[in-house]
Specification:
The protein is an alpha/beta fold. The protein has 2 domains: about 1-195 and about 380-415, Glycogen Phosphorylase B (Rossmann fold, 3-Layer(aba) Sandwich), CATH 3.40.50.2000; about 210-380, Rossmann fold (3-Layer(aba) Sandwich), CATH 3.40.50.2000. Helix content is about 40%, strand content about 15%. The protein is built from 16 helices and 14 strands. The strands form 2 sheets. The protein has an 8-stranded mixed β-sheet with strand order 3-4-2-1-5-6-7-8, with helices on both faces. A 6-stranded parallel β-sheet has the order 11-10-9-12-13-14, sandwiched between helices. β5, α3 (about 110-125) and β6 (about 125-130) form a beta-alpha-beta unit. The chain is globular and about 65 Å long. Mean pLDDT is about 85; it is low at about 395-420.
Length: about 425
Amino acid sequence: MTIYGINYSPEPVGIGPYTAELAGYLAANGHQVRVITTFPHYPSWTLHPSNAHRMRATSSEHEVQVRRLWARMPRPMTGAQRMLFELSYLGQALVSGPGHADVIVGVTPGLGSGLAAAFHGRLRRRRVVIVVQDLAGRGLQQSGMPAHRLLSRLATGAERLAVRSADRVISISDSFVPELVSMGVSRARISVLPNWGRVDSEPRPADPSIELNSLVTVLHAGSLGLKQGLEQLVDAGRLAHERSLPWRFLLVGDGSERSRLEDLARGLPTVEFRDPVSDDDLPALLSSADVLLVSQNPANIDMSFPSKLTAYFGAGRPVVAAVPPTGVVADFLHRTGTGFVTPAGDPPALLRAITTVVDDPTLSRRLAVAAGEHLRSAWSQEALLPQWAAAILDDDQHGVSIERDLEDIVSTRDAEPRAS
């Protein structure tokens, strides 16, 4: 089996950890797994100096053969620069064939990995599986920026080509299903399987550098990019400072927007930035916060489902989500009772939402317990990784919707505008 994907371990957040854990699980269960990826760069979108001038590298990691290819880092992070990054990876991935793999998997985004998997699969008549972690075309369309219209069409075209060529499409959220169907993928070829989270048998000790501080800590951990809409956190931190609230908004991570956000927060004692932490240190960090925050750009209605929720739900802390009120994240948190939702782009409302949760221990506990129960019952590695393997290998356990009936989703959303 060969997996094409631009993100892979040791990247600490985003898609990379899931691709690495999936590859490791398949290898541990007797499959020969090869991964064709890039050098680690996410979420900072920078290469370590030791990798800056390397074109290729091959290693064995947890029984998986990993081949890393050079890709042009976007500077600055614009849609056009991101497209050049995708094309630079795609060009080399097309040359780096899948070998004798019987199954070829493409993890999207990036767009290049999906196209490479589709090309090699059809050329060699091998089984193709496309994993949809986000819909890049829809995301660019929802950004509302005129410069992104052409890029949206190009991205949607690339996604359409990849998924229509697939024998199976695995979507991490059933909110993507209507768009996939509109691209020409039959519902029978779609499996809806969420990402998984770590379920610790015992609580992790808290990070003393946070826990021993008397401030109320509101934590965002993960990428600091455009789609997170983190200006609303900085603005909420400014309001907290003006009202002399003993709060701290802690943004842990990196990304294309970090420098700009640091400039916006300059001089605010209520907003603090820290570098990303390792996978092993993340549980302690999360369990040290008073509130875990999910932030999205107000325009991002249904293009992505934040992977950070799998880690958040295992931390035993309440989740507050500043997200579009009609979007997939708000719908999910309302239905499962696992988070407190407030409209994206409204810093005063965000401040009120956090105050409500912090001042009500019963509500805070109820949200944390519901999140932990959902993680154990629906998102555990033990339950999900065998289902992912079955869908990839074409065993009988595929075509599962774990959040709602697919017929209802498609019928209720058929009238919505679709990416061109």
